[in-house]
């Protein structure tokens, strides 16, 4: 039987880095399971009773009608969520924020500038640090009750949060070595949030 206290479900939306997310979590000695987005069912969630969710990135655009969707049971469970890249856009869309297709795709190294203190950035002693981006869509209006915690050097929203709901969203990839403090960010989500 799965340990119901410390099980994090990683929902795979097709990111090339999904297994790397799992590796980072396991390095922190926390049990996690990876499931494709289309295998998430209410029955599965009832059986596992996860303590948190991580939504991976992915190559699709949430603006397309046939793009991978978010199972609404995830939001109804009111468990902490870390949403990465595509996952951030999916949360934004599902909670009535606004997304647009970008004329300037961010891919590769860029810098983010922290604009608001956040638990997800706890222990990071810099207001500006290097991250790995890979996205073509941008958020231009955050959902209700969310606040912006950082912008990229290109003035693109790079992280948002809803503290009360424990939903933390990152436009960049903390799981890759190219992102400074990525392991710390994942640690903060797992142990502090």
Key features of this structure:
193 residues, alpha/beta
The biggest sheet amounts to: 9 strands, mixed
| Helix-and-strand structural type | alpha/beta
Q: Which word captures the global form?
A: globular
Number of strands: 9
| Chain-averaged pLDDT | 92
- Summarize the amount of helix as a percent range: 10-25%
* Order of helix and strand elements from N to C terminus: EHEHEHEHEEEEEH
Intertermini distance: 25 Å
Q: In percent, how much strand structure appears in the residues?
A: 25-35%
Rg (CA only)? 15 Å
Strand order of the largest sheet: 2-1-3-4-9-8-7-5-6
Topology overview:
Layout: E1 7-12, H1 18-27, E2 31-36, H2 42-48, E3 52-55, H3 72-76, E4 81-84, H4 86-94, E5 98-114, E6 128-141, E7 147-152, E8 157-162, E9 167-170, H5 182-192
Parallel strand pairs: 1-2, 1-3, 3-4, 4-9
Antiparallel strand pairs: 5-6, 5-7, 7-8, 8-9
Structure in words:
- With 193 residues, the chain is of the alpha/beta class.
- Helices cover 22% and strands 35% of the residues.
- The chain contains 5 helices and 9 strands, in the order βαβαβαβαβββββα.
- The protein has a 9-stranded mixed β-sheet, sandwiched between helices.
- β8 (157-162) and β9 (167-170) form a beta hairpin.
- The longest helix has 11 residues, at 182-192.
- The chain is globular, with a radius of gyration of 15 Å.
- The chain starts with 6 loop residues before the first strand and ends with a helix.
- The mean pLDDT is 92.
């Amino acid at each position: 039987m799965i340990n119901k206290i410390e099980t994090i479900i990683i929902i795979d939306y097709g990111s090339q880095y999904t297994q790397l997310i799992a590796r980072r979590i396991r390095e922190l000695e926390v049990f996690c399971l990876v499931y494709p987005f289309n295998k998430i069912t209410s029955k599965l969630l009832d059986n596992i009773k996860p303590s948190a969710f991580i939504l991976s990135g992915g190559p699709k655009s949430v603006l397309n009608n046939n793009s991978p969707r978010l199972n609404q049971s995830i939001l109804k469970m009111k468990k902490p969520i870390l949403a990465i890249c595509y996952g951030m856009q999916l949360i934004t869309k599902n909670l009535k924020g606004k997304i647009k297709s970008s004329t300037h795709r961010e891919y590769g190294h860029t810098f983010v500038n922290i604009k608001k203190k956040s638990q997800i950035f706890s222990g990071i002693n810099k207001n500006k640090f290097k991250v790995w981006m890979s996205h073509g869509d941008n958020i231009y209006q955050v959902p209700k009750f969310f606040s912006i915690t950082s912008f990229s050097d290109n003035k693109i929203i790079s992280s948002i949060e809803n503290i009360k709901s424990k939903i933390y969203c990152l436009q960049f990839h903390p799981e890759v070595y190219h992102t400074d403090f990525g392991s710390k960010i994942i640690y903060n989500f797992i142990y502090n949030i």
